[in-house]
From TrEMBL:
Its EC number is 1.2.4.1. This is Pyruvate dehydrogenase E1 component subunit beta. Residues 33-208 form the Transketolase-like pyrimidine-binding domain. Its cofactor is thiamine diphosphate. It catalyses: N(6)-[(R)-lipoyl]-L-lysyl-[protein] + pyruvate + H(+) = N(6)-[(R)-S(8)-acetyldihydrolipoyl]-L-lysyl-[protein] + CO2. InterPro entries: PDHB_mito-type, THDP-binding, Transketo_C/PFOR_II, Transketolase-like_Pyr-bd, Transketolase_C. The keyword Nucleotidyltransferase does not apply.
Length: 359
């Protein structure tokens, strides 16, 4: 029942919550593009390119999506390709999964990934496992996408990161993009992929405008799934993050530079498969590791990365124990001051870097 509680209020509060934290301009002068518009562009191009691709979910059509991510697509493609569904995640997720098994390529939107818990049997037991259980005879080319991670002032049932949950499941590919370019290139790759993909968009990033290169604006722009990106090269410590915390790491790296500390920021982009090689090479170069994520500490992405380093040749290169910066080990509080303290902040990253460098 959690997914049904307060849903109208949640929808009406989404725009206000995003406006409080970020610029919501759709696109500004130059080669800047809001994250929501990069996602919209990717879906538009792939729906146009392949008649098997369609989008379904709650209010994705006439309402243009709860976050306006699908703005204009229903008017362009109509009811056959952009489909509004009832508020029943298990129902429309099962429908989409069956459509993928029958040869179509659905994009299944969750208004929030918190609501995907209503449909986790379809995602995990049907979509993720069917290719294996059919001995490769039944591929399931589907993308499950929508808002993930912390929101602003919507309480514990709408502010969780599901990266660790879904990336623990064999048969799924899990993407957690940071930038507008990440979103466009990786979503297009996800839609074309023959495996089920969970695409985790951060709720508070939709209105953030970022640089888009000429290459990224091309209809042929793809980013390979499973490849991390060095957002900032450095020599003294590796900061590994995904989604919105990548931005926090970049902010922290700027402050650390003024302290004489050169931090490397690695944007994972994909959580399953993890780019082991990129993580290991970076740690072998810097000899220090701090992981940053918005999810909980236990069984998190940072824990997986630390285990990876322990079991690899990079362990012998560490000059100090790895440190994790995570969300607090509590359900998300509603009060803003508590909410802020339950999420990683720039000063937490800086403090952790000083700790591993013994400064």
């Amino acid at each position: 029942m959690a997914a049904l509680v307060g849903r109208p209020a949640l929808k009406n509060g989404i725009a206000a919550a995003v406006r409080r934290h970020f610029n919501t301009t759709a696109a500004v002068a130059g080669k800047q593009m809001a994250v929501r518009d990069a996602i919209n562009m990717a879906m538009d191009e792939e729906i146009e390119r392949d008649e098997r691709v369609f989008l379904l979910g709650e209010e994705v059509a006439q309402y243009d999506g709860a976050y306006k991510v699908s703005r204009g697509l229903w008017k362009k493609y109509g009811d056959k390709r952009i489909i509004d569904t009832p508020i029943t995640e298990m129902g429309f997720t099962g429908l989409a999964t069956g459509a993928a098994m029958a040869g179509l390529r659905p994009i299944c939107e969750f208004m929030s990934f918190n609501f995907s818990m209503q449909a986790i049997d379809q995602v995990v037991n049907s979509a993720a496992k069917t290719y294996y259980m059919s001995a490769g005879r039944v591929p399931v080319p589907i993308v499950f996408r929508g808002a993930n991670g912390s929101s602003a002032g919507v309480g514990a049932q709408h502010s969780q990161c599901f990266g660790a949950w879904y990336s623990s499941v064999p048969g799924l590919k899990v993407i957690s993009p940071y930038s507008a370019e990440d979103c466009k290139g990786l979503l297009k790759s996800a839609i074309r992929d023959n495996d089920p993909v969970v695409f985790l968009e951060h709720e508070l990033m939709y209105g953030v405008s970022m640089e888009m290169s000429d290459e990224a604006l091309s209809k042929d722009f793809l980013i390979p799934i499973g490849k991390a990106k060095i957002e900032r090269a450095g020599q003294h410590v590796t900061l590994v993050a995904h989604s919105k915390p990548v931005g926090l790491c970049l902010e922290a790296a700027k402050e650390l530079e003024g302290m004489g500390i050169d931090a490397e920021v690695l944007n994972l982009r994909t959580l399953r498969p993890l780019d082991h090689e990129a993580i290991i090479q970076s740690v072998m170069k810097t000899h220090h590791l701090v992981t940053v994520e918005g999810g909980w500490v236990q069984c998190g992405i940072g824990a997986e990365i630390c285990a990876l380093i322990m079991e690899s040749a990079a362990f012998d290169y560490l000059d100090a124990p790895a440190t994790r910066v995570t969300g607090a080990d509590v359900p998300m509080p509603y009060a803003k001051i508590l909410e802020d303290n339950a999420l990683p902040q720039v000063h937490n990253i800086i403090q952790s870097v000083k700790k591993v460098l013994n400064k």
